[in-house]
Amino acid sequence: MRILLVEDEADLGRAIKQVLVNEKYVVDWVQDGVQAWDYLESQWTDYTVAIVDWLLPKLSGLGLCQRLRLHQNPLPVLMLTALGQPENRVAGLDAGADDYLVKPFVMEELLARLRALQRRSPQLQPQTLTVGGFTLDYGNNVLCFGLSQPPQLIPLTVKEFQLFAYLMQNCDRIISGSKIRYQLWDLDEEPISNVVAAQMRLLRRKLANYNCPCPIETIPGQGYRFNTSR
Question: Start and end of every Response regulatory domain (predicted)?
Answer without folding.
Answer: 2-118
